[in-house]
Amino acid sequence: MFEKVLIANRGEIGLRVARCCRDLGMRVVAVYSTEDRDSALVRMADEAVHIGPAPARHSYLNIPALIEAALCTGAQALHPGYGFASENPDLAEVCEDHGITFVGPSATVIDRLGDKVSARALMAEAGLPLLPGGVEPAAGLEEARALAAETGYPLIIKPVAGGGGRGMQVVRDPGELAAKYRQARGKAQALFGDNRVYLERYLASARHVEIQVLGDRLGNLVHLGERDCSVQRRNQKIIEESPAHGLPADVVRRMGEAALLGAKAAEYTGAGTFEFLVDDTGDFYFMEVNCRIQVEHPVTEVVTGVDLVREQFRVAAGLPLELSQSGVAPRGAAIECRVNAEDPARDFLPTPGPIEEFTAPAGPFVRVDTDCFPGHRISAAYDPLLAKVITWAPDRAQARERMRRALDEFHVSGPGVRTNIPFLRRVLDDPRFADGTHTTSLVADLTSQEPLG
Amino acid sequence: MSAGDETKAGDGPGEREEHLADLLAVVHRTAARLLAEAGTPPAGLTVRAGEVTVEMTWPDPVRAAAPGPDPSAAVGPAPGPVHAAPDGTGAEEGGEYIRAPTVGVFYRAPEPGAKSFVDEGDVVEPGRQLGIVEAMKLLIPVEAVTDGRIVEVLKADAAPVEYDEPLFAVRPSEAA
């Protein structure tokens, strides 16, 4: 194992990784932007390096600064967390060049799976089912029209270099195609520096279900079951759970097998997630692979008892997986709610500002991952995630009740600060969520009704 | 030492005293650094060891010219790898700092064994190269931004530096 690890991230995931380092007896190097100089992670770390000003491109995305910080402090490994440079193959490659272990898949694997076109091609070859659409990026509007006619409407235009649900455009009829196609290319260029897009059949009412996989450097692979992430607002997940309620066991089993086939084809190492869409007949389709630890990883940890970040470190250190597929035994049900600093009454506008009061829920089978505390300032420079609340119970109904109680206990206040907790409560109370029959259209239905807040 | 070591349940009295002494040393160093980097002398300074707080107040919301620590913020110890805090000489009335443009390694001379770009007491003009910060084989020049005199060179040659760390204390000509 490593003696010293640099955490190339911030916020709750930075703290989550730091805690794992402590558990494993490894020293922690935090990097921080000017904005984060008083963060909980900086306070907890053994060493902290100021790497740049608030804008992420000058700090958390600044690869030379991250590498210099690792070299200056003698960190042997770099954990990228999620977001920022976590899926940047250049970071993985430069780490390798400087003798720093990147805690994640190799640059080659990240590169191949990060490009949605090559990822789809690889998975199709491995036998995973894909939605009808263009495996090759649409080269222009005419080709897009031809592809769209083949694919059928509604369809979705996605950035080839995208991820995290950003920059997608849903096209409901041929009359919208030209404008949406141009918009999608423009957005893809602005967000990802790559204007290539591809087309895919759009399932308006589907479930978003993903499989967590772990692979070591000796070729061993396991999956740790599924997570249902169907509660999304504008392709951003809000509530996740495991298992996927009501999904037939044979569907879950086949999805797990498909994910392992895909992981084997990609020669995947570390923690990764295979995302699928499941239609109302139980057919599932591969969407993408996330080559990082995910925001929603705690629900899998809670039901399986496996510390995924610990496994990431073990794999990075060249150790074999300690668990086999037969040893993975999910138990009970877990739900995660993302508590964001945003105002549902004002179209979920982010609400940065100082936190004066912060009371997180607690009690049996309640986990809260957060880096907030009274006196912490919510930055306008980064995403608005304040905390993740995870509840576990022997069954989903109890986990949901426990979550309702936990959210009632959660209190955050400060000048101008609002949270999405009232909206989370509304989702939990919605009959479709309560009985587990909801799909990815649930939040759109709720937000189109009376004012929120 | 880590700020996370603030309170260790079960420490004995001797260990606790030693721990507090360490804590105060970190707080002192942090305070010295803040004072040095603040640019304008504060009206008040509070040091609280229990919660590891350094609080500085100004009569008006004066900020240092360069982006740096918010003087009104409560700062816990953020021990960098290489913090040799400036001794504050340059923080005298009208003093300014030339700061590191990135995290990296600071060099005072164009190559090993060569004469330094500048020494203490040298008069400099805008654009004059004062040093280099190397980050991943990239040599980033550190330059003067005003006419003035180098009061103090705050970092040793080949020392690792963090982003925004003061490298030179400069007294501008009009203040000299």
UniProtKB/TrEMBL annotation, chain A:
One of its GO terms (molecular function) is metal ion binding. Residues 1-448 form the Biotin carboxylation domain. Keywords: ATP-binding, Biotin, Ligase, Nucleotide-binding, Pyruvate. It catalyses: N(6)-biotinyl-L-lysyl-[protein] + hydrogencarbonate + ATP = N(6)-carboxybiotinyl-L-lysyl-[protein] + ADP + phosphate + H(+). Its EC number is 6.3.4.14. The keyword Heme does not apply. It comes from the Bacteria. The keyword Cell inner membrane does not apply. Residues 120-317 form the ATP-grasp domain. NCBIfam families: PRK08591.1. This protein is a component of the acetyl coenzyme A carboxylase complex; first, biotin carboxylase catalyzes the carboxylation of the carrier protein and then the transcarboxylase transfers the carboxyl group to form malonyl-CoA. This is biotin carboxylase. It comes from Streptomyces tsukubensis.
Automatic annotation (TrEMBL), chain B:
Residues 95-171 form the Lipoyl-binding domain. Residues 65-88 have a biased composition (Low complexity). One of its GO terms (cellular component) is acetyl-CoA carboxylase complex. Keywords: Biotin, Fatty acid biosynthesis, Fatty acid metabolism, Lipid biosynthesis, Lipid metabolism. Pathway: Lipid metabolism; fatty acid biosynthesis. This protein is a component of the acetyl coenzyme A carboxylase complex; first, biotin carboxylase catalyzes the carboxylation of the carrier protein and then the transcarboxylase transfers the carboxyl group to form malonyl-CoA. This is Biotin carboxyl carrier protein of acetyl-CoA carboxylase. It comes from Streptomyces tsukubensis.
